[in-house]
Amino acid sequence: MTVLPPIEEKARYVERMFAQIAPGYDRVNRVMTFGLDQGWRRRVVEYVAPPVGGRSLDVGTGTGDFLPELAAWSRDGLAVGVDFTLPMMVAGQPKLDALGARSSHFVGGDALCLPFPDQTFDAITTGFVMRNVTDIRQAFAEMHRVARPGAMVACLEVARPRNPVIRLGHRLYFEGVVPWIGQLLGGDRRAYTYLPQSARAFPSPDRLADLMREAGWNYVAYRLYGLGAVAIHVGAKT
Ligand SMILES: C[S@@+](CC[C@H](N)C(=O)[O-])C[C@H]1O[C@@H](n2cnc3c(N)ncnc32)[C@H](O)[C@@H]1O
């Protein structure tokens, strides 16, 4: 049975879902990915290489898992996480407090209409967000608008392994086990049923690369990680 909402209800559905799972979100992520998710995020930040003193942006930041790494790279610069689900950012606030950095901030806002002027950021990241937006091309176009010339974007998202055996194992795990992990550790089976279903409906890595190009990004390329279960796409604003 599908739990995917109709497109016109998707944004509201997504916001409500993440508000509900916010307190257990990080815990479920670590368990569900066997602790690999933080390594993938570090790799994403390496790809965009925020310059010292520069400004970086994480779109759909959730609990702000990218922000400590972005802040570490830009040191006395600025790291901003934008999201439209307030409880996710509230759950992540202790991470920013622990940084003790005045230069990391959460901002409420929509990825499809970012609340920043043109050419503001030197580096842009986004992780596990594009599956949830109603218009992927528009989200990448907004990132392109707020990027300075020379800035890089990197996008971490789920993918479906190409090897048929791994693909089958991945499907059994993702569709059979993950919802139960979500129920046990996050208290919400439905949200973790949405996850594999939204992943199935998500464009292939090649198609996602095309959408980035159509949104204005140049030198778009991607690499697969986690036996092909996730992809990191990168692009540059020239
Ligand atoms: C799966 S979480 C990912 C959080 C974080 N990026 C990470 O790596 O863990 C997806 C996040 O995207 C946010 N999101 C989805 N659509 C959005 C939109 N249109 N504008 C802003 N945030 C959005 C959700 O609120 C949620 O916090």
UniProtKB/TrEMBL annotation:
Gene Ontology terms: biological process: methylation
InterPro entries: SAM-dependent_MTases_sf, UbiE/COQ5_MeTrFase
Gene Ontology molecular function, alphabetical: methyltransferase activity
Top-level taxon of the source organism: Bacteria
Gene3D superfamilies for this protein: Vaccinia Virus protein VP39
Catalytic activity line of the entry: a 2-demethylmenaquinol + S-adenosyl-L-methionine = a menaquinol + S-adenosyl-L-homocysteine + H(+)
Pfam families per UniProt: Ubie_methyltran
Residues that bind S-adenosyl-L-methionine: T63, D83, D110, A111
EC numbers on record: 2.1.1.163
Pathway annotation from the record: Quinol/quinone metabolism; menaquinone biosynthesis; menaquinol from 1,4-dihydroxy-2-naphthoate: step 2/2
Keyword annotations: Menaquinone biosynthesis, Methyltransferase, S-adenosyl-L-methionine, Transferase, Ubiquinone
Keyword Transferase (UniProt): yes
Xref: SUPFAM superfamilies: S-adenosyl-L-methionine-dependent methyltransferases
Enzyme class per UniProt: transferase
Stated family: Belongs to the class I-like SAM-binding methyltransferase superfamily. MenG/UbiE family.
Functional description taken from the UniProt entry: Methyltransferase required for the conversion of demethylmenaquinol (DMKH2) to menaquinol (MKH2).
Protein name: Demethylmenaquinone methyltransferase
